Amino acid sequence: MGNKKLIILMVALIAFIALFGLTLVKREKLTWPERFIKDTVSWTQGLFYKPAGIVAGFFEDVHNLRVVYEENKILKMTLSQYARDTMRLNDLEAQNKRFKEQLAFTERQKQSDNYTYRIAEVIAVSTDPIVKTMNINLGAKDGIKLNMAVVSVDGLIGRIMVVSDFTSTVQLLTDIDDTNNMSKGIAATVKGKESESFGLIERFVGETQLLAMTKIERPEEFNVGDTVVTSGLGQVFPPGLEIGTVVSNEVGEFGITYKAMIQPKASFRHLREVFVVDVPVPGR
Q: Where is the Rod shape-determining protein MreC beta-barrel core domain positioned along the sequence (predicted)?
């Protein structure tokens, strides 16, 4: 008898739930018991849904944060490698450009003179603001001697002033003044007018970064735009080495001779490789 009552109660409950569902589907308005039950169930669901969503969102944020951290780490490594590769590429391109210029320079010189140009690497530059020198990696063992001319691919930069077995010190043109070993000046002439012009480059004017040439007899000897080269007089610098370009011409200090200001062709900054000029001895 007890089981029969239980079965009847379960059937009635199932019928109630089915009827309740059908009434929800077919009707737009709910009775107050239905509304009460629906609101109660929804409120109860909300108690569990919101905390569950917060917890799930927290773990998802932690996962996303770790992914972002790993991606950022990889990105930093990639950018660092890219920067290193870019620097190396720029250095190789600059080196390749210098080598091309040096090759072109030596090819040009073969057509103009019979000098031997020994390439040397600059290994140190003097930081002394008074004495402008630099050291190169060629010395007596390489056949380097005192007073040999030193040039870049652009023009004359100085002479050998000290020689050791494996290195040498170069005195730059920017060191020309009245107190050093080049005080007698550099005998120079105009390219293409060697027999008609003569002057002495006696000092470097730091304020203007120009070379001052004196002892010019006539103003027409050195015109603005002329290329000035070594004349070979004085037995220090061989003839034909380009020095610079005339930028001005005016009367000298005593009004007897004229002077000209020369813009050096060579740059004295950031020198990496230079050439020591080996002039063949006549008869050999």
A: 122-277
pTM over 0.90: no
Write the CA distances from 271 to 108, 124, 150, 154, integer angstroms. 20, 10, 12, 11
Buried b vs exposed e over 228-256: b needs ≥16 C-beta within 10 Å? bbbbbeeebbbebbbbbbbeebeeeeeee
3-state SS class at 262: strand
Q: Which of 152, 154, 206, 160 is nearest to 182 (CA)?
A: 160
**For residue 145, what is the enclosing H or E element?**
none
Asked whether 232 and 187 are in contact (CB, 8 A), the reply is yes
Residues of the chain where predicted confidence (pLDDT) is lower than 70: 1-6, 9-62, 102, 105, 107-112, 129-131, 177-184, 281-284
How do residues 86-116 score in pLDDT, each as one tens digit? 787 777 777 777 777 767 767 666 666 788 8
* CATH code at position 228: 2.40.10.350
Helix (H) or strand (E) holding 108: helix 32-112
Query: Measured between alpha carbons, how far is 43 from 208 in angstroms, rounded to an integer?
Result: 89
